[in-house]
Amino acid sequence: MAGRSARAAVRLDTPVQFLKGIGERRAEALERLGVRTARDLLWHLPHRYIDASTLTPLARADVGQEVACVGRVVAKGVLPTRRGLRIFHAVLRDDSGLLECVWPGQPFLDRTIVVGQTLLVSGPVRFYHGRQMAPREFVILADGDADGDSLPTGKVLPVYPATEGLSHKIIRGLIERHLEGLIALSEDALPEPDRQTLDLPKLPDALRSVHRPTSTEDAERGRRRLAFDELFDLQLMLIRARTLAKRHRSGVAFSLKRDLTTQFKESLPWQLTADQHRALREITGDMTASERMHRLLMGDVGTGKTVVALFAMLLAIENDFQAAFMAPTELLVEQHGATLEKLLEPLSLRPELLLGRQTAAEKAAVRKRLASGQTRLVVGTHALLQEGVAFRRLGLVVIDEQHRFGVEQRAALIGKGAAPDVLLLTATPIPRSLALTLYGDLDISTLKERPPGRGTVRTAVRNSGQRERVLEFIRGECEKGRQAYVVLPVIEETERADLRAATTMMQSLAARWPELQVGLVHGRLKAEERDAVMRRFRNGELHVLVATTVIEVGIDVPNATMMLIEHPDRFGLAQLHQLRGRIGRGAEESYCILLVDGPAPDRLQGFAATQDGFRIAELDLAERGMGDLIGARQSGGFEVRHARLPEDADLLGRARELATRIIAADPALQRRENQRLRERAVTRYPRAVELFRVG
Ligand code: ADP
Ligand code: MG
User: Fold this and answer.
1) Could you tell me the CA-to-CA distances from 521 to 392, 551, 570, 594 in Å, in that order?
2) C-alpha–C-alpha distance, residues 144 and 166, integer Å
3) Which ligand ends up closest to the CA of 270?
4) Chain center to CA of 401
5) Pairing label, strands 137-142, 118-127
6) How far is the CA of 301 from the centre of ligand 2 (A)?
7) pLDDT score recorded for residue 694
8) Residue among 510, 518, 584, 579 at smallest CA distance from 548
9) Could you identify the atom of ligand 1 that is nearest to the CA of residue 400?
10) Ligand nearest 308 Cα, by number?
C-alpha cells in the first residue's frame, strides 16, 4: 500500500526478527525452537490440541484416573522432603474447586509458574494426604489477571511447543497475528487435478485447519494434507534415488554360469526354504539384468539370510568378479567368516578376513591380495572402508545389519567398485508401509519362514514373585550344560534408582551361584573388552551372561537356550524380539522369560504369543508411532513430522503412486509445471539438491 512504511515486504524466507511483534530477544528464543524464518513460524504447528469438552473439572479429577484439567494458580511453593528431594507444588482452582499438583525434583519450576497464571495440566491423579496430580505435561495458557480466567475460548485449543522465555501463549499470539499474511505467501505445489482426485484440502485451508481448528476433525483433515505432502516429497526423492542407483552399468550383466552357484546349492546339507528360493530368484534376476541391483534382504534372525547372500556372492565370483561382505562388529565378521569357510569348503574357496585387530603386516597382505584379485571373497568390518583397500574388480557388495552403517560408509564401500551390485541385509523386519517410507529407494526381498530343524522358543511372562523359581530353573539348566542371558535395562543403579541394574545383578548372581561362571557386558565397556567377554561366552567358558541391550546384535551361541529379561516393560516390542533372537539358535528348545513387577501387560502377552517378526513390527509401530522408529533407525535426513503410520498408510500408497507417475514422465523434475514440486522437495530435503540436479 502506498504511503506505508518503507519496510521491505515480508517473504517466507525473511528472518523472524523482522516480523512485527518479534524483536531480538524473541527471535533468539524462537531459534531454540528451530524457528528462524517466517516460513518456519508458519510451519511451527501445534503438537497437540485440547478439546475443551474432554477437560475434567478440578473437583472431579478422581484418584486413579489420568486426566487433563485447566485452572488458575492460586498458591505455589517448594517443599523439601525428608529424603532431601525438593518438590515444586501448585494449587489450581476452577469453578468446581481445587486440585494440588506436584512436580518432585523440579524446584526450578518455581521460576516459571506464578500465581495468577492459567495452567493446563495432564497426568495421573493419586492420593497423598488428599488428591494430588503429578503432571506429565503442563502448558501455561494465560499469564495473569489481564487475560481473565480464560478457559480456552474456542472449542479446540491448539498447543504449541514452547521454550524458556517464550510461552505457548506468546507463540500462539504471534502465529495468530501473522497467520493469514504468511498463508497468502504460500504456494500450493500439488497440482489441482491431483488434489481433487485425492480429496485433500487446499494448502491454505489445511494450514488454517491445523492452526485454528473448528473441531478436532478439522485439525485432523488439515494434518492429513500436510502429511500427504511430506510423504509425497519423501517418495519423490526415494524413487528418484532408486532410478539413479539402478542406472545401467557399462555393459556388464552377470550371467548365471551355474558353476560355483550350482555346486554350492548341491553341496548344502539341507533344502532351501521356499522364501530363500524366492529371494534367490529375485536376486538372480537383478544381477543378470543390465541395471544395477539395489536390494534389501529383510528377515528375522535365523531365517537364513547368510546362505542367500553367499549365493549372490558366488554368482559374482563365477563371473570373475570379487565380492565384499561387511558387518558392523569384529565378532560378527568372525562368525560370518567361520560360517562361510564351512559352507565354501566343498568348493575349495576360502573367504579372506579383514579386521581392525589384525597386525599391520596381515592387513597389508590382505590388501595386496584384494588389489591383485587373488582374493575373491572378503569379509570385514569398517576396516574395508580404509583408503588403502582397493579391489581389482569388485562386482558385489553385501552389507549385514545395514542400518548400523551410515549412508557415507555404505557409499564408501560401494565406491570401491566401478558399479557393483548392492545387497543390504537387515534382521529388523518392518511393516510394508514403513519399508516404503524408509527404504523406498530399494527393492525388497523378505524371508519369513524359518528353516526347519531349529528348536522352538517358548516365551513366558512371569511375576517377580516367581523370581526364585525362575532363577532355580536357569541354574538347573546351566548345570546340564546350557547357557543363559540375563538382560537388564540399565548398567548401574545410579542411573535409575527404581530399576534393577546389570552390574548389581552380575554381583548377586555370582554370589548366589559360586559353582557357575557369570560374565557381564554392557555398552560402557571398550569394544575389545566386550568382544572378549562375548567370546568367552561363545566358547562355553561362561554359563551366564548378564547384559544390557548390547547383545542385540551379533552374537550367535547355539548352546544358549535361556534368556531372562528384567523390566521388559522398559523395552520396545521390536527390541524385545531382537533380544529373543539370540536364543533358539540350536536344536534344543529355548526359553525366554519376561519378569514383570505387577500384572502382565497385554503388550507383553501379545509378544509372548507370536514369533513372527513382521507381526511384532506392526505392533511396535502401532505402539510407538513412526517418528520414533525412524529416529531410531535412520540418522540421515528424513523428516516425518506430520505423517503417522500405520494410520496414514493409504496416503503413503497414493503419494507413492503420484510420485512414480511424475518421476516417470519427468525424471529430474525439469518441466515447468513441476518447478514448485521440485523447489519444495529441495527445501525439505537438502539431499534432493543432488538428486534433482539438472543434467
Ligand atoms: P540369519 O543370518 O538370517 O540370522 P543364518 O543365515 O545365519 O540366518 O542362518 C541361520 C542358521 O540356519 C544357520 O546355521 C544356517 O546354516 C541354517 N540354515 C540356513 N538355511 C537353512 C535351510 N534352508 N535349512 C536348514 N538350515 C538352514
Ligand atoms: Mg545373520
Assistant:
1) 40, 8, 19, 20
2) 15
3) 1
4) 14
5) antiparallel
6) 6
7) 61
8) 579
9) 2
10) 1
User: Per the omega criterion (within 30 degrees of 0), is the bond before 328 cis?
Assistant: no
Can you give the pLDDT at residue 453? 78
Residue 616 CB contacts under 8 Å (≥ 6 apart), including other chains: 429, 573, 574, 577, 607, 610
Instruction: Check residue 14 and give left, alpha or beta (phi > 0: left; psi -120 to 50: alpha).
Output: beta
pLDDT at res. 626: 59
Task: Tell the residue nearest (CA) to atom 5 of ligand 1.
Answer: 304
CA of 589 to the centre of ligand 1 (A): 17
| CA atoms of 661 and 654, how far apart (whole Å) | 11
Nearest-atom index, ligand 1, CA of 299: 3
* Average pLDDT value for the chain: 89
Q: Give distance in angstroms: CA of 303 to centre of ligand 1.
A: 6
CA–centroid distance, residue 409 to ligand 1 (Å): 27
The amino acid occupying position 594 is L
Residues 505-551: tens digit of each pLDDT:
999 999 999 999 999 999 899 988 988 999 999 999 999 999 998 88
User: 301 CA distance to ligand 1 centroid (A)?
Assistant: 9
Q: How far is the CA of 298 from the centre of ligand 2 (A)?
A: 10
Which residues contact ligand 1 via a Cβ below 6 A?
A: 270-273, 276, 299, 301-307, 427, 451, 453
Determine the distance separating the centroid of ligand 1 and the alpha carbon of 306, expressed in angstroms: 7
Ligand 2 centroid, distance to 87 Cα (angstroms): 50
At 251 the pLDDT is: 63
b/e per residue, 465-488, with b = 16+ CB within 10 A?
eeeeebbebbbebbeeebbbbbbb
φ, ψ for residue 677, nearest 5 deg: -65, -45
Q: Which residue in 237, 213, 57, 131 sits closest to 680, CA to CA?
A: 237
- Beta carbons within 8 Å of 81's beta carbon, 6+ residues apart: 87, 104
Nearest Cα to Cα of residue 561 among 631, 476, 466, 652: 476
* C-beta of residue 366 within 8 angstroms of C-beta of residue 346: no
Opening angle at CA 41, ends 40 and 46, nearest 5: 105
The minimum-distance atom of ligand 1 relative to the CA of 306 is 6
Ligand nearest to the CA of 453: 1
Q: Is the pTM of this model over 0.85?
A: no
Question: pLDDT band for position 408 (50/70/90)?
Answer: confident
Of 273, 307, 426, 556, best ligand 1 pocket probe by most atoms within 8 Å of the beta carbon = 307
Q: Which atom of ligand 1 is nearest to the CA of 270?
A: 24
Q: Show the 3-state SS of 210-247.
A: HHCCCCHHHHHHHHHHHHHHHHHHHHHHHHHHHHHHCC
| Ligand 1 atom index nearest CA of 343 | 16
Task: Return the ligand 1 atom nearest residue 558 CA.
Answer: 14
The pLDDT value given to residue 437: 76
- For residue 661, what are the contacts with CB-CB under 8 A and spacing of at least 6? none
Count other Cβ atoms within 10 Å, centred on residue 148. Answer: 11
E-assigned strand segments in 400-451: 421-426, 443-447
CA of 327 to the centre of ligand 2 (A): 9
For the CA of 303, the nearest ligand: 1
CA distance 488 to 9: 58
- Reading the block at residue 158, the C-alpha cell is 491448539
Atom of ligand 1 nearest to the CA of 272: 23
Residue 100's DSSP bridge partners are: 91, 132
